[in-house]
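Quarterly update from the structural biology core.
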Amino acid sequence: MDILETSAYDRRQHRNTNCVLFLCLLPFFASCTIYFYLWIPDSAPSLLAAGIKAAPILCLVLLVLSYNGRRSLVGVAGGLLLSAGGDCCLIWPELFIHGMGCFALAHLLYSISFLSSRYSATSSSVSFFILYLILWLFGIGMYAYLVPFLQLDAEADLLVPAIGGYMLLIVIMATLAARTRRPLILLGSLVFMASDLTIALTKFNVFDVEYKKHIIMTTYYLAQLMIALGDVKAALEEDADDIHKWKRS
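Predicted structure, tokenized:
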């Protein structure tokens, strides 16, 4: 009977947690709606445009902090905060390198978080090693494909190594995301790569994509949402495990 009661209690707690989490996400969805309704990318660069673009990510920062505390500043919350800084920089085309630097540091903090004990993974299977190999071959192949186009840019001497370093960090982040064995984290990292790939292919005139801004921002916000939710769920599971251990002791 005690086991059944505990199981029923856990189910109620799970439902309540999901309801609270959904309510906490309402500001994120509201700010995304405002961004797409105003369609800031077609506006002149301004502090208002930067704030509206970064608002959904700042909502995710507050969500992660509310569940994980200040420790997540050296992790997913910190990565989201740097991403918001990158969003603001990219409003102004001349700050592209600065924005890319912010996102590179964000991937570094994500990677640090995915290596933490909360995400400790069991030994990888052959299928995961194949996934790692695919990620690295894809990253190397895309960089090699982009280099000739980067060399046509006036800032080629800066862009070629900078893009190479950025791609290295995002592939490392995606590899460590796969290592966590958490679907939301893995999907978030892959969608993030897809968003960045769209930026690279269109910005450096590899080819044009219809509705590119819609694709870039939709995939970007979706990727950040999945990474944030994956981190929150990992924290909730860690807390639940601690409670169960305390009850058994």
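DSSP finds eight helices and no strands in the chain.
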